[in-house]
Amino acid sequence: MKVIIRDNAKDAALWVAHRIAGAINAKAKVSKKPFVLGLPTGSTPEAVYAELARMNKAGEVSFKNVVTFNMDEYVGLPVEHPESYHSFMFRNLFDHVDIPRENIHILDGNAPDLAAECASYEEKIVAAGGFDLFFGGIGEDGHIAFNEPFSSLQSRTRVVTLTDDTIRVNSRFFGGDVNLVPKQAMSVGVATVLSAAEVIILALGPKKARAIGEAIEGPITHKNTVSSLQNHPDGIVVVDEEAAGELKLNSYKYFKAVEAAEMR
Ligand code: GLP
Questions:
Q1: Mind listing the pLDDT tens digit for each residue in 182-236?
Q2: Are strands 184-187 and 158-161 parallel, antiparallel or unpaired?
Q3: What is the dihedral of CA 81, 87, 91, 96, to 10 degrees?
Q4: What gap in Å lies between CA 181 and CA 106, rounded to an integer?
Q5: Ligand 1 contact, 155 CB (< 6 A)
Q6: Does residue 138 line the site of ligand 1, with CB under 6 A?
Q7: Closest Cα to atom 6 of ligand 1
Q8: In this predicted model, what pLDDT tens digit does every residue of 147-173 receive, in sequence order?
Q9: What is the mean pLDDT of the chain?
């Protein structure tokens, strides 16, 4: 696993945005096949999306041949609800870049048959050629997408029940009222994320420090599903100083030294 530590949240987000744009541009140079990109919601990716939108407007990257799959969506929340992940994605990214509408995939949390919707999502990912890159965040308890603690590390897209902790944390988007937060979601599985050629996890701020410390230095465990990245050949964790706060000093110095050596 590679760990990139930046001084602040802005620089960490810029690193991720430029990495994503660089990967899209690199594939476009050698292949006509679409770039298949997994995407998260949450407050963490907002600055990444703002930079990708800026780069798109400046002609530095195009999304015309990018196919996206979002990692999760609430069950039962109307698509037009401002806190649906559909709304979030259009507001923060898709309305600001040149991606064709038909290239965008987001799970339908109101599908009549949720299990069938999940199975068909996995089929669409395969049909698109599989993920070139999966970008994700991390929950305070170490979850990736909505793969809460004790999710199988072999899981695929399915309906999940949110933990009380996640409902409490996410209630900030619903006026602080836990009763307004959907209790279930649909989420790509841990194995779906790990099927990507490259996985980038971005974590910002002190609330993510414990989960990041455990994911990087602890054992691979279903209690912290981001720890499964240890088994991925091309996993990158990008953090600001605060999210790096629970790394051991020696690990911190090592990751900094590796990056300095690679830039030489
Ligand atoms: C939700 C999402 C995750 C996201 C997490 C952290 O649980 N399902 O994909 O990583 O929130 O969100 P934030 O970036 O707002 O801290």
A1: 999 999 999 999 999 999 999 999 999 999 999 999 999 999 999 999 999 999 9
A2: antiparallel
A3: -150
A4: 19
A5: no
A6: yes
A7: 139
A8: 999 999 999 999 999 999 999 999 999
A9: 97
Q: Which two tokens stand for residue 192?
A: 């779906």
Q: Do residues 163 and 151 lie in contact, with contact meaning Cβ atoms separated by under 8 Å?
A: no
Instruction: Tell me the best of 85, 89, 141, 143 to mutate to test the pocket of ligand 1, counting ligand atoms within 8 Å of each CB and taking the most.
Output: 143
Note the pLDDT of residue 87. Answer: 97
Give residue for tokens 């919601």: 41
Distance CA 43, CA 169 (A): 12
Question: CA-CA distance, 48 to 20, in Å (whole number)?
Answer: 9
From CA 58, how far away is CA 116, in angstroms rounded?
40
Ligand 1 atom showing the smallest separation from residue 44 Cα: 14
Q: Out of 51, 122, 141, 246, pick the active-site residue.
A: 141
Which of 51, 73, 86, 143 is catalytic? The answer is 143
Q: What is the pTM of this model?
A: 0.97
* Torsion-angle region of 145 (φ positive above 0: left; ψ -120 to 50: alpha; else: beta): left
